[in-house]
Specification:
By secondary structure, the protein is mainly alpha-helical. The protein is globular.
Length: about 120
C-alpha cells in the first residue's frame, strides 16, 4: 500500500480507499482479517489513531466488522451491494473528470470523444 503525504487526501482516507478497492475486487475474502491496526501503523510509519480512523470508516460502510481482541475482518459482500459500490465510485470519478474538463474549457463533445476513445481501447 502506497501512502502519499502531500497529495491533499488525508492518510486515513487513502488507507480506507485502498482497502475498499481491495475488498470490492475480492482480494480480501469474507472472514479474512485485515492487518492489525498496530502492524499497519508500524509498516506505514503512521499513528495508530490514523489507522484506526481508516478501519472505523470501513466499518461504518459495512465492509468490515471489529472483533474484540482479534481485529477487523471482512464482511460478506452482497453482489448487488458490490455493483452499487462500483457504480458509485465510477460516478464519483466521472464527476471529478467532468469538473476538471469544465475548468480546462473542454466541451461536452470533446469529453464524449475522449470517453469513447478510452472505451475503445482493449485492455
Amino acid at each position: 500500500m502506497k501512502i502519499y503525504q502531500n497529495n491533499g487526501v488525508p492518510i486515513y482516507q487513502q488507507i480506507a480507499d485502498a482497502f475498499r478497492v481491495d475488498i470490492l475486487a475480492g482480494k480480501y475474502k469474507q472472514g479474512e482479517f485485515l492487518p492489525s491496526i498496530r502492524e499497519l501503523a508500524r509498516d506505514l510509519k503512521i499513528s495508530v489513531i490514523t489507522t484506526m480512523k481508516a478501519y472505523e470508516q470501513l466499518q461504518s460502510e459495512g465492509l468490515v466488522t471489529a472483533m474484540q481482541g482479534k481485529g477487523f475482518y471482512v464482511n460478506a459482500q452482497d453482489s448487488d451491494m458490490l455493483r452499487e459500490q462500483h457504480i458509485r465510485k465510477v460516478e464519483e470519478l466521472l464527476t471529478d473528470a467532468i469538473t476538471s474538463a469544465r475548468i480546462a474549457g473542454i466541451s461536452d463533445e470533446e469529453i464524449i470523444e475522449m470517453l469513447n476513445a478510452l472505451l475503445s481501447i482493449k485492455e
